Amino acid sequence: DCQSPSDWGSMQDFASKVRDQPRTTREDLVSDVKRAGNTVSMVTISNTLHRHGLKSCSVRKVPLLKPARVQARLKFAKDHLDGPEEAWEKVMWSDETKIELFGMSFTHRVQRKKKDEYNPKNTIPTLKHGGGNNMLWGCFSAKGTGRLHHIEERMDGAMYHKILGNNLLPSVRAMKMGRGWVFQHDNNPKHRARATK
Looking at the record's lineage, which domain of life comes first (predicted)? Predict the structure, then answer.
């Protein structure tokens, strides 16, 4: 008694709607078909989406970036795209991250193809800092992960300088990075403080 998508419209149109609006749920699609005066099962909807390479996936969280920062990151990636792979073995990366202790526990879902996980339509922007969390500093290179430091107070330039002094060089030595290694961090004002430089 359930009709197939071809009974109420082209399957291509059905998949196109989900591609244009990836947060459309199967329930939304059932309601759309019902409003058109037809019925369709969830199984038929799932099968149709799968035939078009779309499946229900968790929304990826990405940093909330201004367009200028997006362009700067893209330029950095393009500038270093053709460099020798061995050069990356001499780079030590570091950053701070926030681990949420409380907040929204539910997961948003989108219908997408595997390769489209970071398309802006399929992501949720996140802010770097907020309440109810633990802040951590860490570093890593192609050779492995370095020390992890729990940040207990609001971080300023002096604290950042101290974190580097206690964690960065010991991590470089532990990974046997040798001479000529490069330290890479973002342009956070605390990272640009005179004492840090």
Answer: Eukaryota
